[in-house]
Structure formats: C-alpha cells, structure tokens
Amino acid sequence: MLVGERLKEVRKSLKLNKTQMVSGTISRSFYSRVEKNENMINARDLMEIMYSHEVPMVKFCQGLGNTRPQIYAYHERILYAYLKKDVDALNDIYYKGNFADLRIKSFIILLISKLEGQTEEAKKIIQQDPSYNCLQGNNWNEENLWFTFLS
Q1: At 19, phi and psi to the nearest 5?
Q2: Could you give the C-alpha distances from 151 to 105, 142, 147, in angstroms and in order?
Q3: What is the pLDDT of residue 142?
Q4: Distant-in-sequence, close-in-space partners of 36: CB < 8 Å, separation ≥ 6
Q5: pLDDT of residue 34
Q6: pLDDT, tens digit, 9 for 90 and up, residues 77-102
Q7: Are 132 and 126 in contact (CB under 8 A)?
Q8: Nearest CA-CA partner of 2 in 47, 30, 35
Q9: Contact in structure between 78 and 93 (CB atoms under 8 Å)
Q10: How far apart are CA 3 and CA 126, in angstroms?
Q11: Which among 148, 75, 151, 76 is positioned nearest to 113, based on CA atoms?
C-alpha cells in the first residue's frame, strides 16, 4: 500500500472529509493529490496530520504493509534469548542493537543481571534511573506492557 492510499484509509476510518483531515497543515487540494499518489507529502506534514487526529505514526506505518517496526524484532530476539537463558545473545543484542528507546539497553542489562543471579545490581539500575520505571502513571502502551511482561 502506498502512503496516499493509507492516508485515505485512515481518513475514512476517522470519518473525516479531506478538509477536516488537513485542517491547518496543508491545502486540501495538495492533500487530495497526495491521496491519489500524484504528490509526495513530507514527513513533518504527515506527522502533524496524524498527531492532530491522535493516530500514532507506528500505527499509520503498520498499515502500509510489511513495515513492522524494528523494535518488535528486537522484542522477539530479547525474549527468545532470555527464555533460552542465553546471556551471550543478550550481550550481542545489547552491543550491536541500534535502539531509539534507550530503556531497552537498560532492560537488557536487567535481564542479564537476573540470569547471572545479580538481582541487587538490577535493583541499583532501577533506582539510579527513575525515568526507566515504565510502571509510573497510566501509560499502558504496548511497549510498557512488553517491559512488564518480561519483568
């Protein structure tokens, strides 16, 4: 699926007309051409449109086809390595991974600490980095549920 087709799909799911979809971002006529895949939309405008309608970019991109975010591949590799108690694989993911969310690196350290029986070290990591605590507040998104599951 192309970006224009996905935009149209999202717009229709939100029950919006084209003017409502782009209010305050780009012109309706330009947007119409984007939906027809005649024009390209820049990332900033696309994000502004999606966020103005509370549509996460990850969700938008997932609808484009096989664009599963790399984070899910890391989740699977981390879970598999942890369940296999493979500290070497976790270390490999830690050192070779390119993570946008730095909590994942901290989390891998926690998992390695647990597998090596160094839970006191894991507790120190949590206490030193209060932003790591994904259980604060009511932010129960998919990412935080994954962290909770492995915890």
Answers
A1: -65, -45
A2: 14, 14, 6
A3: 60
A4: 4
A5: 93
A6: 888 898 899 999 999 988 887 766 66
A7: yes
A8: 35
A9: yes
A10: 40
A11: 151
- The contacts of residue 19 (CB under 8 Å, 6+ apart) are 28
Positive or negative: CA dihedral 128, 130, 133, 135: positive
How far is the C-alpha of 76 from the C-alpha of 13, rounded, in Å? 30
| Inter-helix orientation angle 28-35/3-13, to 10° | 110
The residue written with tokens 């994000």 in the block is 47
What tokens does 99 get?
């993570």
Residue at token pair 């991974």: 97
Instruction: Give the tokens for residue 137.
Output: 């507040």
Helices 70-83 and 87-96 cross at an angle (nearest 10°) of 160
Mean pLDDT value across the chain? 79
Count of CB atoms situated within 10 Å of the CB of 32: 16
Give pTM, 2 decimals.
0.45
pLDDT in tens, 129-139: 554 555 444 55
